Amino acid sequence: TLPDNIADFKSLEFLDISNNLFSSSLPLGIGELRSLQNLSLAGNNFSGPIPDSISEMASIKSLDLSRNSFSGMLPVTLTKTTSLVSLNLSHNGFTGKVPKGFELIPALEKLDLHGNMLEGNLDVVFMLLSSASYVDLSENMLSSSDSKKKFLPRISESIKHLNLSHNKLTGSLASGAAEPVFENLKVLDFSYNQLH
């Protein structure tokens, strides 16, 4: 268990306790670590929701909570962590919709939410405006807004790696448009959907 007084570690810039046997939920005071730039809790058994206070980490650049037992909805406040470069919440039990606003994080390079139970429509605004180069939303329950149309009209030129496999996406992949849509992609995985 992380100590309740973790907020007392005010000068901490790097905290990695990955691949241990930590459990319980995150203490609310974790958001008071305002000097923290890199936090990795990956590969433990933390559970419960992510506290909204996590957005108060003003300096956070890399946040890795992957391979735990976190649950509940992703807090909208995550999109307010404007210094974030890498966010990995993969292999947890998150449900509900992906919050809107990740495209507004100017420095975001990696967004990895794969292996959860996220649902709702794929956010085409994020796909169009994101500055991220690595986006993995695979192994969720994401769907398309209109199965009769092209499921992804355009994507940001920043995105080089896009994995949307193992979802419930429907619609057409062909655009019929003159402009190249996926010209900057290096990795593209749409497997295990219902595209045509």
Compile the SSE list and pairings.
Blueprint: E1 14-16, E2 23-24, E3 38-40, E4 45-48, E5 62-64, E6 69-73, E7 86-88, E8 93-97, E9 110-112, E10 117-121, H1 124-129, E11 134-136, E12 141-143, E13 161-163, E14 170-171, E15 187-189, E16 194-195
Parallel strand pairs: 1-3, 2-4, 3-5, 4-6, 5-7, 6-8, 7-9, 8-10, 9-11, 10-12, 11-13, 13-15, 14-16
What does this entry look like structurally?
With 196 residues, the chain is mainly beta. The chain has one helix at 124-129, and strands spanning 14-16, 23-24, 38-40, 45-48, 62-64, 69-73, 86-88, 93-97, 110-112, 117-121, 134-136, 141-143, 161-163, 170-171, 187-189, 194-195. The chain is elongated, with a radius of gyration of 17 Å.
Briefly, what is this?
The protein is 3% helix and 27% strand. With 196 residues, it is mostly beta strands.
